[in-house]
Specification:
Strand order of the largest sheet: 3-4-5-8-9-10-11-12
Organism: Aestuariibaculum suncheonense
CATH class of the largest domain: Alpha Beta
Number of domains: 3
Number of strands: 20
Structural class: alpha/beta
CATH architecture of the largest domain: Alpha-Beta Barrel
CATH superfamily of the largest domain: Glycosidases
Helix content: 25-40%
Largest sheet: 8 strands, parallel, barrel
Protein name: Alpha-amylase
Length: about 475
Protein backbone atom coordinates (compact mmCIF):
# COMPACT_ATOMS: atom_id res chain seq x y z
CA UNK A 1 0.00 0.00 0.00
CA UNK A 2 1.23 3.49 -0.80
CA UNK A 3 0.37 6.45 1.42
CA UNK A 4 -0.62 9.70 -0.27
CA UNK A 5 -0.49 12.83 1.84
CA UNK A 6 -3.41 15.18 1.28
CA UNK A 7 -3.39 18.84 2.28
CA UNK A 8 -6.68 19.68 3.92
CA UNK A 9 -7.81 23.10 5.12
CA UNK A 10 -7.93 22.72 8.89
CA UNK A 11 -8.58 26.23 10.02
CA UNK A 12 -9.45 29.43 8.28
CA UNK A 13 -8.53 32.55 10.18
CA UNK A 14 -9.58 35.96 9.02
CA UNK A 15 -7.20 38.73 10.01
CA UNK A 16 -8.31 42.30 9.73
CA UNK A 17 -5.71 44.67 8.43
CA UNK A 18 -7.09 48.16 7.93
CA UNK A 19 -10.21 47.58 5.82
CA UNK A 20 -8.87 44.47 4.11
CA UNK A 21 -9.57 40.87 5.00
CA UNK A 22 -6.87 38.30 4.45
CA UNK A 23 -7.57 34.58 4.38
CA UNK A 24 -4.96 32.50 6.11
CA UNK A 25 -5.16 28.76 5.56
CA UNK A 26 -3.49 26.44 7.99
CA UNK A 27 -2.88 23.05 6.38
CA UNK A 28 -2.58 19.71 8.07
CA UNK A 29 -1.67 16.29 6.72
CA UNK A 30 -3.87 13.20 6.72
CA UNK A 31 -2.99 9.90 5.13
CA UNK A 32 -5.06 7.96 2.63
CA UNK A 33 -4.00 4.49 1.55
CA UNK A 34 -4.09 3.73 -2.17
CA UNK A 35 -3.57 0.19 -3.41
CA UNK A 36 -0.55 -0.46 -5.61
CA UNK A 37 -0.47 -3.83 -7.37
CA UNK A 38 2.79 -5.69 -6.89
CA UNK A 39 4.71 -6.56 -10.08
CA UNK A 40 3.58 -9.75 -11.76
CA UNK A 41 5.59 -12.69 -10.46
CA UNK A 42 5.93 -16.47 -10.51
CA UNK A 43 3.61 -16.93 -7.54
CA UNK A 44 0.79 -15.25 -9.47
CA UNK A 45 1.43 -17.39 -12.55
CA UNK A 46 1.20 -20.65 -10.60
CA UNK A 47 -2.51 -20.27 -9.88
CA UNK A 48 -3.68 -17.86 -12.59
CA UNK A 49 -6.58 -18.05 -15.01
CA UNK A 50 -6.24 -15.80 -18.07
CA UNK A 51 -9.22 -14.07 -19.73
CA UNK A 52 -9.27 -12.94 -23.37
CA UNK A 53 -11.35 -9.78 -23.64
CA UNK A 54 -12.98 -8.98 -26.97
CA UNK A 55 -14.00 -5.40 -26.17
CA UNK A 56 -15.99 -4.90 -29.39
CA UNK A 57 -18.23 -7.91 -28.77
CA UNK A 58 -18.20 -8.09 -24.97
CA UNK A 59 -21.17 -5.74 -24.58
CA UNK A 60 -23.85 -4.00 -26.60
CA UNK A 61 -21.86 -0.79 -26.18
CA UNK A 62 -18.60 -2.43 -27.26
CA UNK A 63 -16.67 -0.08 -24.99
CA UNK A 64 -13.91 -0.06 -22.40
CA UNK A 65 -16.37 1.42 -19.94
CA UNK A 66 -18.89 -1.43 -20.27
CA UNK A 67 -16.18 -4.05 -19.88
CA UNK A 68 -14.60 -2.29 -16.91
CA UNK A 69 -17.85 -2.57 -14.94
CA UNK A 70 -17.63 -6.36 -15.08
CA UNK A 71 -13.98 -6.75 -14.04
CA UNK A 72 -14.91 -7.54 -10.39
CA UNK A 73 -17.04 -10.44 -11.70
CA UNK A 74 -14.07 -11.86 -13.61
CA UNK A 75 -12.25 -12.08 -10.32
CA UNK A 76 -14.95 -14.53 -9.22
CA UNK A 77 -13.83 -16.82 -12.05
CA UNK A 78 -10.28 -16.92 -10.71
CA UNK A 79 -8.99 -14.54 -13.39
CA UNK A 80 -5.61 -12.99 -12.57
CA UNK A 81 -4.62 -11.82 -16.07
CA UNK A 82 -6.76 -10.03 -18.66
CA UNK A 83 -5.55 -10.19 -22.25
CA UNK A 84 -7.10 -7.36 -24.26
CA UNK A 85 -7.48 -8.04 -27.96
CA UNK A 86 -5.87 -5.17 -29.94
CA UNK A 87 -7.10 -1.79 -28.70
CA UNK A 88 -5.42 0.27 -31.44
CA UNK A 89 -7.01 2.21 -34.34
CA UNK A 90 -7.86 0.06 -37.38
CA UNK A 91 -6.87 1.00 -40.92
CA UNK A 92 -9.57 2.15 -43.33
CA UNK A 93 -7.56 1.18 -46.43
CA UNK A 94 -8.26 -2.42 -47.49
CA UNK A 95 -10.49 -2.89 -44.45
CA UNK A 96 -11.94 -6.40 -44.34
CA UNK A 97 -15.68 -7.13 -44.35
CA UNK A 98 -17.77 -10.09 -43.28
CA UNK A 99 -17.24 -12.82 -45.82
CA UNK A 100 -13.54 -12.01 -46.14
CA UNK A 101 -13.69 -9.47 -48.97
CA UNK A 102 -12.76 -5.79 -48.75
CA UNK A 103 -15.29 -3.33 -47.34
CA UNK A 104 -14.74 -0.83 -50.17
CA UNK A 105 -16.39 -3.27 -52.57
CA UNK A 106 -19.73 -2.91 -50.75
CA UNK A 107 -21.76 -0.36 -52.70
CA UNK A 108 -24.39 0.31 -50.03
CA UNK A 109 -22.92 2.98 -47.74
CA UNK A 110 -24.93 1.91 -44.70
CA UNK A 111 -23.78 -1.70 -45.06
CA UNK A 112 -20.20 -0.62 -45.72
CA UNK A 113 -20.23 1.48 -42.54
CA UNK A 114 -21.03 -1.64 -40.50
CA UNK A 115 -17.68 -3.16 -41.44
CA UNK A 116 -15.30 -2.23 -38.64
CA UNK A 117 -12.36 -4.28 -39.86
CA UNK A 118 -9.87 -6.57 -38.14
CA UNK A 119 -8.33 -5.61 -34.83
CA UNK A 120 -5.06 -6.93 -36.28
CA UNK A 121 -4.82 -4.24 -39.03
CA UNK A 122 -3.26 -1.61 -36.76
CA UNK A 123 -2.87 1.94 -38.05
CA UNK A 124 -1.09 3.36 -34.98
CA UNK A 125 0.59 1.39 -32.19
CA UNK A 126 0.42 4.27 -29.71
CA UNK A 127 -3.24 5.33 -29.97
CA UNK A 128 -6.58 3.97 -28.76
CA UNK A 129 -9.32 2.82 -31.13
CA UNK A 130 -12.08 5.45 -30.71
CA UNK A 131 -14.60 2.66 -31.31
CA UNK A 132 -13.85 1.51 -27.74
CA UNK A 133 -13.63 4.87 -25.98
CA UNK A 134 -10.93 7.30 -24.90
CA UNK A 135 -7.47 6.93 -23.40
CA UNK A 136 -9.03 7.97 -20.09
CA UNK A 137 -11.48 5.07 -20.38
CA UNK A 138 -8.57 2.74 -21.07
CA UNK A 139 -6.66 4.04 -18.06
CA UNK A 140 -9.70 3.48 -15.86
CA UNK A 141 -9.86 -0.11 -17.12
CA UNK A 142 -6.23 -0.67 -16.13
CA UNK A 143 -6.78 0.93 -12.73
CA UNK A 144 -9.93 -1.09 -12.03
CA UNK A 145 -8.17 -4.33 -12.98
CA UNK A 146 -5.21 -3.50 -10.73
CA UNK A 147 -7.58 -2.57 -7.89
CA UNK A 148 -8.99 -6.10 -8.24
CA UNK A 149 -5.53 -7.74 -8.21
CA UNK A 150 -5.75 -8.47 -11.95
CA UNK A 151 -2.94 -7.76 -14.43
CA UNK A 152 -3.58 -6.54 -17.98
CA UNK A 153 -1.63 -7.47 -21.12
CA UNK A 154 -2.12 -6.01 -24.59
CA UNK A 155 -2.48 -8.01 -27.78
CA UNK A 156 0.50 -6.80 -29.83
CA UNK A 157 0.70 -7.22 -33.62
CA UNK A 158 4.42 -7.22 -34.54
CA UNK A 159 4.29 -9.08 -37.85
CA UNK A 160 2.39 -6.50 -39.90
CA UNK A 161 0.49 -3.20 -39.82
CA UNK A 162 -2.60 -1.89 -41.55
CA UNK A 163 -2.16 0.04 -44.79
CA UNK A 164 -2.88 3.40 -43.12
CA UNK A 165 0.05 3.23 -40.73
CA UNK A 166 2.29 6.27 -41.16
CA UNK A 167 5.28 3.98 -41.72
CA UNK A 168 3.77 3.03 -45.10
CA UNK A 169 4.20 6.61 -46.30
CA UNK A 170 7.23 7.78 -44.35
CA UNK A 171 9.25 4.57 -44.01
CA UNK A 172 8.41 2.15 -46.84
CA UNK A 173 11.74 0.44 -46.15
CA UNK A 174 10.18 -0.82 -42.90
CA UNK A 175 8.13 -3.24 -45.03
CA UNK A 176 8.77 -6.31 -47.15
CA UNK A 177 8.76 -5.43 -50.85
CA UNK A 178 8.56 -7.46 -54.04
CA UNK A 179 10.86 -7.20 -57.05
CA UNK A 180 8.94 -4.14 -58.23
CA UNK A 181 9.50 -2.33 -54.97
CA UNK A 182 5.86 -2.77 -53.92
CA UNK A 183 4.96 -3.42 -50.29
CA UNK A 184 3.31 -6.82 -49.93
CA UNK A 185 1.01 -8.56 -47.51
CA UNK A 186 2.42 -11.40 -45.35
CA UNK A 187 3.70 -14.58 -47.02
CA UNK A 188 3.28 -18.10 -45.68
CA UNK A 189 6.88 -19.34 -45.34
CA UNK A 190 5.79 -22.95 -45.91
CA UNK A 191 4.15 -22.28 -49.29
CA UNK A 192 5.74 -19.02 -50.43
CA UNK A 193 2.25 -17.69 -51.10
CA UNK A 194 0.12 -15.03 -49.43
CA UNK A 195 -1.72 -15.97 -46.24
CA UNK A 196 -4.69 -14.06 -47.64
CA UNK A 197 -4.29 -11.25 -45.13
CA UNK A 198 -4.77 -8.53 -47.72
CA UNK A 199 -5.74 -5.92 -45.13
CA UNK A 200 -2.21 -5.78 -43.71
CA UNK A 201 1.35 -5.05 -44.90
CA UNK A 202 4.28 -7.30 -43.95
CA UNK A 203 7.01 -5.75 -41.81
CA UNK A 204 10.68 -6.14 -42.71
CA UNK A 205 12.72 -7.27 -39.70
CA UNK A 206 15.97 -6.81 -41.60
CA UNK A 207 15.48 -3.10 -40.95
CA UNK A 208 17.13 -2.18 -37.64
CA UNK A 209 15.38 1.20 -37.42
CA UNK A 210 11.98 -0.43 -37.66
CA UNK A 211 12.96 -2.76 -34.82
CA UNK A 212 13.91 0.22 -32.64
CA UNK A 213 10.60 1.95 -33.29
CA UNK A 214 8.67 -1.24 -32.58
CA UNK A 215 10.40 -1.61 -29.21
CA UNK A 216 9.82 2.07 -28.44
CA UNK A 217 6.10 1.72 -29.14
CA UNK A 218 5.86 -1.36 -26.91
CA UNK A 219 7.78 0.46 -24.18
CA UNK A 220 5.27 3.31 -24.23
CA UNK A 221 2.47 1.09 -22.97
CA UNK A 222 4.62 -0.29 -20.15
CA UNK A 223 6.12 2.96 -18.91
CA UNK A 224 3.32 5.43 -19.66
CA UNK A 225 0.10 3.39 -19.47
CA UNK A 226 1.09 0.82 -16.83
CA UNK A 227 0.22 -2.34 -18.77
CA UNK A 228 1.73 -5.58 -17.51
CA UNK A 229 2.93 -7.25 -20.70
CA UNK A 230 1.91 -8.47 -24.12
CA UNK A 231 0.32 -11.32 -26.02
CA UNK A 232 2.26 -11.28 -29.29
CA UNK A 233 0.34 -12.20 -32.42
CA UNK A 234 1.92 -14.83 -34.71
CA UNK A 235 5.08 -14.53 -32.63
CA UNK A 236 6.85 -17.32 -34.51
CA UNK A 237 6.58 -15.38 -37.79
CA UNK A 238 8.82 -12.71 -36.29
CA UNK A 239 12.56 -13.55 -36.14
CA UNK A 240 13.52 -14.97 -32.76
CA UNK A 241 16.51 -12.64 -32.64
CA UNK A 242 14.08 -9.72 -32.51
CA UNK A 243 12.54 -11.15 -29.34
CA UNK A 244 16.06 -11.65 -27.99
CA UNK A 245 16.59 -7.94 -28.58
CA UNK A 246 13.20 -6.60 -27.51
CA UNK A 247 12.14 -8.61 -24.47
CA UNK A 248 15.22 -7.89 -22.31
CA UNK A 249 14.79 -4.18 -23.05
CA UNK A 250 11.13 -4.35 -22.01
CA UNK A 251 11.87 -6.37 -18.88
CA UNK A 252 14.48 -3.80 -17.87
CA UNK A 253 11.68 -1.25 -17.59
CA UNK A 254 9.18 -3.38 -15.63
CA UNK A 255 8.40 -6.95 -14.57
CA UNK A 256 6.11 -8.07 -17.39
CA UNK A 257 4.28 -11.17 -18.60
CA UNK A 258 4.88 -12.28 -22.20
CA UNK A 259 2.56 -14.66 -24.07
CA UNK A 260 3.50 -15.94 -27.54
CA UNK A 261 0.87 -16.97 -30.05
CA UNK A 262 3.11 -19.87 -30.96
CA UNK A 263 4.08 -23.27 -29.60
CA UNK A 264 7.81 -23.40 -30.44
CA UNK A 265 9.81 -24.29 -27.29
CA UNK A 266 12.70 -22.01 -28.28
CA UNK A 267 10.51 -18.95 -27.71
CA UNK A 268 10.29 -19.89 -24.02
CA UNK A 269 14.04 -20.17 -23.49
CA UNK A 270 16.49 -17.60 -22.10
CA UNK A 271 13.81 -15.56 -20.31
CA UNK A 272 12.01 -14.67 -23.53
CA UNK A 273 8.29 -15.53 -23.44
CA UNK A 274 6.72 -16.79 -20.22
CA UNK A 275 3.93 -18.72 -21.89
CA UNK A 276 3.14 -20.26 -25.28
CA UNK A 277 -0.02 -21.69 -26.85
CA UNK A 278 -0.96 -25.30 -26.20
CA UNK A 279 -2.17 -25.64 -29.79
CA UNK A 280 -1.49 -29.37 -30.04
CA UNK A 281 -3.42 -30.09 -26.86
CA UNK A 282 -6.33 -27.99 -28.11
CA UNK A 283 -6.51 -29.96 -31.35
CA UNK A 284 -6.30 -33.27 -29.47
CA UNK A 285 -9.29 -32.26 -27.32
CA UNK A 286 -11.31 -31.55 -30.47
CA UNK A 287 -10.28 -34.83 -32.07
CA UNK A 288 -11.05 -36.93 -28.99
CA UNK A 289 -14.49 -35.33 -28.64
CA UNK A 290 -15.18 -36.14 -32.30
CA UNK A 291 -14.02 -39.75 -31.97
CA UNK A 292 -10.93 -39.26 -34.16
CA UNK A 293 -8.46 -39.67 -31.27
CA UNK A 294 -8.62 -41.29 -27.85
CA UNK A 295 -7.10 -41.35 -24.35
CA UNK A 296 -3.84 -42.83 -25.61
CA UNK A 297 -3.28 -39.67 -27.68
CA UNK A 298 -3.68 -37.52 -24.56
CA UNK A 299 -1.15 -39.71 -22.72
CA UNK A 300 1.29 -39.44 -25.63
CA UNK A 301 0.95 -35.66 -25.54
CA UNK A 302 1.64 -35.56 -21.80
CA UNK A 303 4.83 -37.54 -22.29
CA UNK A 304 5.79 -35.31 -25.20
CA UNK A 305 5.51 -32.00 -23.35
CA UNK A 306 7.66 -33.38 -20.53
CA UNK A 307 10.49 -33.95 -23.00
CA UNK A 308 10.06 -31.05 -25.48
CA UNK A 309 9.52 -28.28 -22.93
CA UNK A 310 11.57 -27.29 -19.90
CA UNK A 311 10.17 -27.59 -16.39
CA UNK A 312 9.57 -23.83 -16.06
CA UNK A 313 7.82 -23.45 -19.42
CA UNK A 314 4.13 -22.54 -19.27
CA UNK A 315 1.54 -23.56 -21.86
CA UNK A 316 -1.88 -21.96 -22.24
CA UNK A 317 -4.67 -24.54 -22.30
CA UNK A 318 -7.97 -23.69 -23.97
CA UNK A 319 -11.14 -25.01 -25.56
CA UNK A 320 -11.83 -21.76 -27.42
CA UNK A 321 -10.40 -18.35 -28.32
CA UNK A 322 -11.25 -15.59 -30.80
CA UNK A 323 -9.92 -17.51 -33.83
CA UNK A 324 -11.53 -20.80 -32.86
CA UNK A 325 -14.93 -19.30 -32.11
CA UNK A 326 -15.22 -17.14 -35.22
CA UNK A 327 -13.62 -19.44 -37.79
CA UNK A 328 -13.73 -23.04 -36.53
CA UNK A 329 -16.86 -23.21 -34.43
CA UNK A 330 -18.26 -22.81 -30.94
CA UNK A 331 -17.31 -25.01 -28.01
CA UNK A 332 -20.51 -27.02 -28.49
CA UNK A 333 -19.97 -27.35 -32.24
CA UNK A 334 -16.52 -28.83 -31.77
CA UNK A 335 -16.81 -30.62 -28.43
CA UNK A 336 -20.52 -31.39 -28.10
CA UNK A 337 -21.42 -33.32 -24.93
CA UNK A 338 -17.73 -33.50 -24.01
CA UNK A 339 -17.54 -29.71 -23.47
CA UNK A 340 -17.46 -29.71 -19.66
CA UNK A 341 -15.02 -32.62 -19.50
CA UNK A 342 -12.57 -30.99 -21.90
CA UNK A 343 -12.90 -27.64 -20.14
CA UNK A 344 -12.12 -29.25 -16.80
CA UNK A 345 -9.06 -30.92 -18.28
CA UNK A 346 -7.66 -27.52 -19.33
CA UNK A 347 -7.61 -26.63 -15.62
CA UNK A 348 -6.19 -29.99 -14.51
CA UNK A 349 -3.27 -30.01 -16.96
CA UNK A 350 -0.06 -28.13 -16.13
CA UNK A 351 -0.19 -24.61 -17.53
CA UNK A 352 -2.73 -21.80 -17.46
CA UNK A 353 -6.39 -22.13 -18.51
CA UNK A 354 -7.95 -19.54 -20.81
CA UNK A 355 -11.50 -18.16 -20.80
CA UNK A 356 -12.59 -16.32 -23.96
CA UNK A 357 -15.26 -13.60 -23.87
CA UNK A 358 -18.67 -15.25 -23.85
CA UNK A 359 -17.40 -18.69 -22.90
CA UNK A 360 -18.38 -18.00 -19.28
CA UNK A 361 -21.95 -17.36 -20.42
CA UNK A 362 -22.21 -20.50 -22.56
CA UNK A 363 -21.79 -18.63 -25.87
CA UNK A 364 -23.36 -20.92 -28.49
CA UNK A 365 -22.82 -18.99 -31.73
CA UNK A 366 -19.86 -17.75 -33.74
CA UNK A 367 -19.11 -14.09 -33.10
CA UNK A 368 -18.76 -11.89 -36.15
CA UNK A 369 -15.17 -10.78 -36.59
CA UNK A 370 -15.30 -7.70 -38.82
CA UNK A 371 -18.49 -6.08 -37.57
CA UNK A 372 -20.40 -5.50 -34.33
CA UNK A 373 -21.86 -8.41 -32.44
CA UNK A 374 -22.33 -9.14 -28.75
CA UNK A 375 -22.20 -11.97 -26.26
CA UNK A 376 -24.96 -13.23 -23.94
CA UNK A 377 -24.87 -12.09 -20.31
CA UNK A 378 -26.96 -14.73 -18.54
CA UNK A 379 -25.12 -16.77 -15.96
CA UNK A 380 -25.84 -20.48 -16.10
CA UNK A 381 -24.18 -23.87 -15.88
CA UNK A 382 -20.97 -22.81 -17.65
CA UNK A 383 -20.45 -19.85 -15.34
CA UNK A 384 -20.90 -22.10 -12.30
CA UNK A 385 -18.46 -24.70 -13.65
CA UNK A 386 -15.81 -22.07 -14.45
CA UNK A 387 -16.28 -20.33 -11.11
CA UNK A 388 -15.70 -23.54 -9.16
CA UNK A 389 -12.76 -24.58 -11.34
CA UNK A 390 -11.29 -21.11 -10.94
CA UNK A 391 -11.50 -21.30 -7.15
CA UNK A 392 -9.79 -24.69 -7.22
CA UNK A 393 -7.07 -23.41 -9.53
CA UNK A 394 -6.46 -20.36 -7.31
CA UNK A 395 -6.30 -22.22 -4.02
CA UNK A 396 -5.04 -25.78 -4.51
CA UNK A 397 -1.29 -26.09 -5.05
CA UNK A 398 -1.80 -29.43 -6.78
CA UNK A 399 -3.01 -27.37 -9.75
CA UNK A 400 -0.02 -25.04 -9.82
CA UNK A 401 0.92 -24.64 -13.47
CA UNK A 402 3.56 -21.95 -13.61
CA UNK A 403 7.32 -22.01 -13.44
CA UNK A 404 7.29 -24.33 -10.40
CA UNK A 405 4.44 -26.51 -11.59
CA UNK A 406 2.86 -29.28 -9.51
CA UNK A 407 3.82 -32.84 -10.33
CA UNK A 408 1.80 -34.81 -12.89
CA UNK A 409 1.48 -38.61 -13.02
CA UNK A 410 -0.54 -40.78 -15.36
CA UNK A 411 -2.25 -43.57 -13.37
CA UNK A 412 -2.56 -46.61 -15.61
CA UNK A 413 -5.92 -48.37 -15.66
CA UNK A 414 -7.23 -51.18 -17.82
CA UNK A 415 -10.09 -49.21 -19.37
CA UNK A 416 -8.67 -47.52 -22.47
CA UNK A 417 -11.46 -44.89 -22.51
CA UNK A 418 -10.72 -43.59 -19.01
CA UNK A 419 -7.93 -41.15 -18.17
CA UNK A 420 -6.68 -40.99 -14.58
CA UNK A 421 -4.21 -38.26 -13.61
CA UNK A 422 -2.66 -37.40 -10.28
CA UNK A 423 -1.31 -33.91 -9.46
CA UNK A 424 0.62 -33.13 -6.31
CA UNK A 425 2.62 -30.36 -4.69
CA UNK A 426 3.74 -30.05 -1.09
CA UNK A 427 0.77 -31.23 1.03
CA UNK A 428 -1.83 -30.91 -1.74
CA UNK A 429 -2.93 -33.87 -3.85
CA UNK A 430 -5.63 -34.19 -6.48
CA UNK A 431 -6.88 -37.01 -8.72
CA UNK A 432 -8.73 -36.51 -12.02
CA UNK A 433 -10.78 -39.37 -13.49
CA UNK A 434 -12.48 -38.84 -16.85
CA UNK A 435 -14.56 -40.95 -19.22
CA UNK A 436 -13.52 -39.86 -22.72
CA UNK A 437 -16.23 -41.74 -24.57
CA UNK A 438 -19.93 -41.51 -25.39
CA UNK A 439 -20.68 -44.76 -23.54
CA UNK A 440 -20.90 -45.52 -19.83
CA UNK A 441 -17.64 -46.92 -18.48
CA UNK A 442 -16.51 -48.88 -15.44
CA UNK A 443 -12.98 -48.56 -14.16
CA UNK A 444 -10.90 -49.88 -11.29
CA UNK A 445 -8.84 -47.03 -9.87
CA UNK A 446 -5.74 -48.14 -7.92
CA UNK A 447 -5.74 -45.23 -5.48
CA UNK A 448 -6.12 -45.24 -1.72
CA UNK A 449 -6.87 -42.48 0.75
CA UNK A 450 -9.53 -40.06 1.87
CA UNK A 451 -10.80 -37.62 -0.74
CA UNK A 452 -13.41 -34.90 -1.19
CA UNK A 453 -15.40 -35.08 -4.42
CA UNK A 454 -15.05 -31.69 -6.15
CA UNK A 455 -18.48 -31.92 -7.80
CA UNK A 456 -20.54 -33.12 -4.83
CA UNK A 457 -18.52 -32.09 -1.78
CA UNK A 458 -18.86 -35.57 -0.29
CA UNK A 459 -15.97 -37.20 1.54
CA UNK A 460 -15.13 -40.80 0.83
CA UNK A 461 -12.43 -43.35 1.58
CA UNK A 462 -10.89 -44.96 -1.48
CA UNK A 463 -9.39 -48.39 -1.16
CA UNK A 464 -7.23 -50.40 -3.53
CA UNK A 465 -8.95 -51.25 -6.82
CA UNK A 466 -12.02 -49.07 -6.29
CA UNK A 467 -14.56 -49.66 -9.02
CA UNK A 468 -16.23 -46.54 -10.36
CA UNK A 469 -19.00 -46.13 -12.90
CA UNK A 470 -18.77 -43.07 -15.12
CA UNK A 471 -21.50 -41.73 -17.37
CA UNK A 472 -20.58 -40.70 -20.94
CA UNK A 473 -18.09 -37.80 -20.82
CA UNK A 474 -18.32 -37.68 -17.00
CA UNK A 475 -15.35 -36.61 -14.90
CA UNK A 476 -14.48 -36.63 -11.22
CA UNK A 477 -11.97 -34.48 -9.40
CA UNK A 478 -10.99 -35.99 -6.05
CA UNK A 479 -9.19 -33.69 -3.65
CA UNK A 480 -6.84 -35.38 -1.21
CA UNK A 481 -7.39 -34.86 2.52
Amino acid sequence: MKKIMLLVPALIVFISCKNEKKEVVQETEISQEVKVLAPINNEVLESAVIYEANIRQYSKEGSFEAFTKDIPQLKQLGVKIIWLMPVFPISETNRKATGGDFAYKIEDKAERAKMLGSYYAVSDYTKINPEFGTIEDFRNLIKTAHDNDIYVILDWVPNHTGWDHEWIKNHPDYYTQNDKGEIIDPINPDTGESWGWGDVADLNYDNSEMRKEMIADMSYWITEENVDGFRCDVASNVPTDFWMQAIPELRAKKDIFMLAEASQPELLKANLFDMAYGWEFHHILNEVAQGKMNVSDIKTYIDKIKTEYESDDILMNFVTNHDENSWNGTVKERLGEASNLMTALTYIMPGMPLIYSGQEYGLDYRLKFFEKDSIPKTKGETWNVLEELGKLKNTNKALNGGKVSAGLNIINVENKDVLVLERHKEQDKLVFIGNFSKAEQEVNVPITGQFTDFNTGTISELKQANQLTLKPWEYKILIGK
